[in-house]
Amino acid sequence: MNNNELNERRLQATPRGIGVMCGFYADKAENATLWDVEGNEVIDFAAGIAVLNTGHRHPKVVAAIEKQLHAFTHTAYQIVPYEGYVALAERINARVPIQGPAKTAFFSTGAEAVENAVKIARAYTRRPGLITFSGAFHGRTFMTMALTGKVAPYKLGFGPFPGSVYHALYPSPLHGVTTAEALKSLERIFKADIAPDQVAAIIIEPVQGEGGFNVSPADFMQALRAICDTHNILLIADEVQTGFARTGKLFSMEHHSVQPDMITMAKSLAGGMPLSAVAGRAEVMDAPAPGGLGGTYAGNPLAIAAAHAVLDVIDEEELCARAAQLGEQLVTLLNAARADCPAIADIRAQGSMVAVEFIDPHTGEPSPEFTRQVQEKALQAGLLLLSCGVYGNVIRFLYPLTIPDAQFRKALDILSAALTR
């Protein structure tokens, strides 16, 4: 079976709403390398959309899953609990940048984590309102689509969405949005749309994912914390994409001097297995009544075992430090490329959460066309890249943090050629 034959089968068997980026089909993978069904090799700088910080099939993750597989695969934690779930909650509670005692609940997807954070926030505050930001991405369920600040392709044709959700501006110097202007937009919401004493939570990505890897300025995060404290609003950090060493810290919020009340996490938490979590201040997490949280597959035993191994690997292989080192190398290359690539408008980075934004150098307008050209050139040379951004004009880099040095250098050479030739 070749790629073309599989593609014909896909078009007949699956709906067009499931968009597929690549024209090749995976056969096997290891660390930062993918092989398709025809034996072609690709360096993976997408990592399943930020899921594989510890790489494809890390031996310790595989061993942990295999060990659990021989014990049991499912009981439903809410019916018959198991020690692995409790132990993982204990480990996360000890690591999250949250003041005071923390508690953690596990789910299956990032959207589930955000949905449950909303439920917890409303149960704790007894308020309906939610504030998020332009460019945000929080998931594909109806509540998380409402929270998401990017229409195409996530919200097209799917409305109406749940109410009591409001979008403030997210700081973006390139697009003329300062911290002061973003805060004014929040004040306008309080004046025009909902009183602050009716807001349950402000939900923010410390570094926006789909929005283009916009990094929250320190003064903006400090101001949000102060606003939340003044009005008894919960601050929720959505770390689904930023978590687990990607930014040079276990959590991106560790780069800030203030702490959230809750953190949502998923993606690289379990090294490719479906697992998400909400961690938060104990009194907040205890607000829902027994039975109010959960799910049939929430905290699946195989995924829990994988997550334990992921935390071990992050510590043993010092992946936070490696994220900072690799990110610095990539940013250096991108800055050097500016001389021969006038389309580069901005380079944004926090650790290995790195992105480059492109414009048409003649008009100054966002250039998704140039972005696609860079992706296509890189893929032809064996490097898989992802785009993002409200205008689709940003390339984000999500390589496994375990990528070998020689392979990383090869990938940077491919990227340099794709930018400058």
TrEMBL record:
Its EC number is 2.6.1.19. It is an enzyme of class 2 (transferase). GO terms for biological process: gamma-aminobutyric acid metabolic process. Its cofactor is pyridoxal 5'-phosphate. It catalyses: 4-aminobutanoate + 2-oxoglutarate = succinate semialdehyde + L-glutamate. Keywords: Aminotransferase, Pyridoxal phosphate, Transferase. Pfam families: Aminotran_3 (PF00202). Belongs to the class-III pyridoxal-phosphate-dependent aminotransferase family. This is 4-aminobutyrate--2-oxoglutarate transaminase. It comes from Pseudenterobacter timonensis.
